[in-house]
Design goal:
4 helices; 2 domains; mainly alpha
Length: 78
């Protein structure tokens, strides 16, 4: 058990990008198998939207300013 833990610790230190890629790939495959392709796309899309909104809130950006920047401030374009 200690050798397995040492192996994963070494892989995390030496090949972090590849390790993250494997974790994301396996997770995506599991989500697609569980929910189907289009439901997975929907889930991932709204997860990304939620992440973006949460990151803006964490950065203390004013919610109204964020909405104006995304959707415009209501002025028409000529």
């Amino acid at each position: 058990m200690a050798s397995i833990k040492a192996f994963f610790a070494r892989m995390w230190e030496e090949r972090r990008g590849a390790s993250i890629g494997v974790i994301l790939g396996v997770s995506l495959a599991a989500v697609i198998l569980l929910f189907g392709f289009w439901q997975s796309v929907f889930l991932i899309l709204f997860g990304c939207i939620g992440f973006a909104i949460g990151a803006r809130i964490d950065s203390k950006e004013n919610f109204q300013k964020m909405m104006n920047r995304i959707f415009g401030d209501g002025e028409t374009m000529n």
